[in-house]
Amino acid sequence: NLASEADVRAAAMDAELFLRGHQPDEYKRLGRERREVEQKLLTVEGRFSLAFAKAPIGMVLLTPDGRITEVNQAFLDMLGYGREEFTSRDSFFFTHPDDIALTRKFFESLQRGTSDTARIEKRYFRKDREIVWTRASAARTLAAPPSPGPVGPV
Q1: How far apart are CA 46 and CA 30, in angstroms?
Q2: Which of 15, 25, 26, 97 has the most CB atoms within 10 Å of its CB?
Q3: Which residues are registered as beta bridge partners of 134?
Q4: Taking 90 as the threshold, does the pLDDT of residue 97 lie above it?
């Protein structure tokens, strides 16, 4: 999370001030830098959140084990679920049984790091049990835990 990165940087700056003996000019400069960094992080995080939410293609953020952490409206619409109903299950619940092994290999290849991106064609079940064929793409994130693992359009 970018906001928590700002907290870590702020704590580092505070520690630096303490070690320097609380020099007033240095404190003011570091305080300005801290506010600038926080504002930039919030701007970037806001842009990503807006792009994710408004994307015309389905997108999901998952943990490496397939737990759903975020989903956009396009993906919910594609499968016919509400947000709470969807995020209360893992991604394998929606995956066609014949594609579960393929999907596990897909996630494993990202976790091994042999590639930072992967693509597969797979089937999902809609809420009405109709089958939807998709091309799923994912990218491995390098953020520190507990951030999501694969992310990508479907």
Answers
A1: 24
A2: 26
A3: 122
A4: yes
Q: Whole-angstrom Cα distance, residue 39 to residue 108?
A: 36
Among candidates 131, 94, 101, 102, which has minimal Cα distance to 119?
102
HEC states along 45-102?
Answer: HHHHHHHHHHCCCCEEEECCCCEEEEECHHHHHHHCCCHHHHHCCEHHHCECHHHHHH
Nearest residue to 90 via CA among 124, 46, 41 = 124
The tokens of 68 are what?
């759903």
Predicted TM-score (pTM) of the model is 0.66
Structure tokens at 132: 């939807």
The 10 Å Cβ neighbour count of residue 94 is 19
Backbone angles phi, psi at 138, to 5 degrees: -145, 155
* Helix (H/G/I), strand (E/B), else coil: 37: helix
* pLDDT for 151 beyond 60: no
Tell me how far CA of residue 136 lies from CA of 26, 108, 119, 153, in angstroms.
Answer: 50, 15, 5, 6
